[in-house]
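Protocol step 4 of 5: obtain the predicted structure for the target chain.
Materials: sequence only (see below). No template structures provided, no constraints applied. The aim of this step is simply to have a reference model before the mutagenesis design in step 5. Sequence pasted as it appears in the construct record:
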Amino acid sequence: MRRMKLQPMRNAHVGRSVLRGRIMSEIFSSANGKRVLRECREALDLPVNCDEVSRQYVLARYAMEVDITPAELEDLLL
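Step 4 output (structure tokens):
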């Protein structure tokens, strides 16, 4: 009987950077990913979201929509 890993990767032989690159290319090529990036930039440009706590809430909300971490989303926006 095979046991499942706690944090399985899609392909055990592929490195984390390759998987991250594939995820990022999927986001840039999909209509939903482009919408999320555009709306997140607009939300972060508002004066209300200039403090760090509000910024983290905005990033977490939009990162959840495209199933990535808030840190990865922040890297995409730079």
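Step 4 remarks: The chain has four helices and no strands. Helices lie at 16-29, 31-45, 52-66, 70-77.
Proceed to step 5.
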